[in-house]
Amino acid sequence: MQVRDFDPSTADSTAFGDWLTVLNEMTAEDMPDEPRWCDDRIADYLSVTMPGESRIAWTAYDDEIGVAGHANLLLFGGDFAHTGVFEIFVRPAARGRGTGRALLTELAKHAAADGRETISTEVIATTPAVGFYERLGFARAVVEQRSLLALSSVDWSRIAQQAKQVSAPYRLEYHRGGLPEELHERYATTKANLRTAGPQQAGEWRGSSDAVRLRDSLATLKGRGMRTHMVVAVHEKTEQVAGLTELVVAAQRPTRGDQYDTVVAPAHRSYGLALAMKARMLTELRSAEPQLRDVQTWTALENSPLEHVNAQLGFDPDVQWFEYEAAVPALLDGLR
Ligand SMILES: CC(C)(COP(=O)(O)OP(=O)(O)OC[C@H]1O[C@@H](n2cnc3c(N)ncnc32)[C@H](O)[C@@H]1OP(=O)(O)O)[C@@H](O)C(=O)NCCC(=O)NCCS
Predict the structure, then answer these.
(1) pLDDT tens, 96-112?
(2) Which atom of ligand 1 is nearest to the CA of 94?
(3) Taking each helix axis from N to C terminus, what angle separates 211-223 and 184-191, rounded to the nearest 10 degrees?
(4) Measured from the CA of 68, which atom of ligand 1 is nearest?
(5) Strand blocks (E) in 197-293
(6) Domains in the chain, ordered, with CATH?
(7) C-alpha 209 – ligand 1 centre gap (Å)
(8) Which tens digits make up the pLDDT trace of 159-193?
């Protein structure tokens, strides 16, 4: 087993083809109902990062199988320079032969050399990745419920009604591919309410709480081939952003929408804004992304008012997602 660096800036079409093969074989084996990945902007997807961040990738080669798996590690900057997130994908035929262990060892060594204290990854609860990470010393840090909305099952007249249930003093605006410059500051202020709202530990929220980070984040998504859609509720007397919801469609998996953040500022809660904004989003997606088949969203297991909103829109709870985390020095000791 050999693990070699994978550099998306120099990789050729064969190497990207191998990357896709690994992803799609893994998906077919572990999550057969999930959409497959397609050959569109993979290089951008793997190489573009936020300023101050970097992503390093590796390929594992097996003497008998050839390309056996891939891994990548995203190293955050600024306040999060102590940590990183990673992914490991092993082809079904190459499993149980130490491929995953070899990729994890390489990336943990790199994380240690770069001074990272912890690394984490997300896994779907029904896949073999759970046993692998628990065996290798990771602890479950976050559990979330993923829900899916199949667009073929949507009652569009009901959704259109829900989207209209906004009374004065609010108006809804839909923005695609970015936000008007003058909204950035107000949008980021409302988004900062999520700092203490999610399942993460205090201080671990990595979202955009100021206009500069928001602008960088939108540019990064665009650079990676991820199309952003945003619905904003504006309080008409003050022109403040009372609430927002964001959804992303990746060029690499264009039939699946990823619901990102939804938040209503505390002073504007209980007016039905979350339901109206999310319903409006769905109506816009019908024409903006006609190839879309479903939308996925994640909620914390407890105290999630969004679960009620999602149920009203027709989302069905699907599988749990776990975030696994390990302290890098202990992980390396265990791997030796
Ligand atoms: C999880 C995964 C990386 C394991 O790869 P692998 O090459 O089969 O793992 P290895 O052969 O290196 O196994 C390393 C150790 O983990 C153990 N292990 C591997 N899979 C396991 C499982 N499902 N349950 C329990 N232990 C497991 C092995 O027994 C081995 O233990 P040992 O070294 O102490 O003897 C692979 O199954 C995979 O790619 N899964 C999909 C990844 C995924 O879900 N990505 C995220 C999608 S969102």
Answers:
(1) 999 999 999 999 999 99
(2) 7
(3) 100
(4) 7
(5) 226-235, 240-250, 256-264
(6) 2-144+323-335 (3.40.630.30), 155-313 (3.40.630.30)
(7) 37
(8) 999 999 998 899 999 999 999 999 999 999 999 98
